Amino acid sequence: MARDEPDGRMKRRDYEAELEKLQVELCHLQQWVQEYGARVIILFEGRDAAGKGGTIKAITEKVSSRVFRVVALPAPSDRERTQLFMQRYMQNFPAGGEIVIFDRSWYNRAGVEYVMGFCSPEEHQRFLSLCPQIEKYIIDGGIILIKLWLEVGMEEQERRFKARIHDPLRQWKLSPMDTESYRRWYEYSRARDMMFAATSTEHAPWRIVRSDDKRRARLNCIAHILERIPYARVKREEVKLPKRSGKGHYDDQESLRGMEFVAERY
């Protein structure tokens, strides 16, 4: 791929051309998942401002939300805090013919919960110990599990945070938790490394995506997902539109006369 932007990043037109090809393949993947009742879970984790949301949007832009289902859970309620830790995640697992994308997942316990003190050291260690066993159970149950970590550099994260501060369209993306994660960069690095050491297993390995260049990161993520799922193109019958029924004496536009329409400002 040509590095023809002044800062060495992928040029937009090259990115859009490659993205279109990959999105076509995602549509073929979608049809295969529906045809064979496959179940897929894709986890997106990474530092704040690493580009998870944009990557998920690129994946889901041209496919059905009924097949590619995005789950981004809020902080647990008082009731959920009394449940088994994995319980609220498992109730969002895919049925046959679904791909569930977790925008952050049960690995919150290994990251933000641990660093910010929302769980005890004992709960953190218990999670790291049990997680590989739980994921083995998930995979043995027939679910394809893909775990992706988006890694953004320190300088690029700072640039993105500063851009959000001054952009009214992105200010909502910058929360107090984000600014605290910025301050605790190295605490998050240590938590990340402990997580990788304990949970990157042969049956459920982590894959790291460099995301300083968002465009390349999105393409690399999609290409990896397509490689990890053993799909094939499903032959589908050509759709032919039937003839419309006769309208008789009914005028479906005349019947709208007198209704209130939205003002045509554009």
Automatic annotation (TrEMBL):
Xref: Pfam families: PPK2 (PF03976)
GO MF annotations in UniProt: polyphosphate kinase activity
Swiss-Prot/TrEMBL keywords: ATP synthesis, Kinase, Transferase
Domain (Polyphosphate kinase-2-related): residue spans on this chain: 10-236
EC number, UniProt record: 2.7.4.-
Keyword presence, Transferase: yes
Domain of life: Bacteria
Enzyme superclass (EC): transferase
Catalytic activity annotation: [phosphate](n) + ATP = [phosphate](n+1) + ADP
One GO BP: ATP biosynthetic process
Family designation: Belongs to the polyphosphate kinase 2 (PPK2) family. Class I subfamily.
NCBIfam families assigned to the protein according to its UniProt record, in alphabetical order: PPK2_P_aer (TIGR03707)
Assembly notes: Homotetramer.
Function per UniProt: Uses inorganic polyphosphate (polyP) as a donor to convert GDP to GTP or ADP to ATP.
Protein name as it appears in the record: ADP/GDP-polyphosphate phosphotransferase
Protein source organism: Kaistia nematophila
Taxon lineage: Bacteria, Pseudomonadati, Pseudomonadota, Alphaproteobacteria, Hyphomicrobiales
Name of the gene encoding the protein in the UniProt record: ppk2
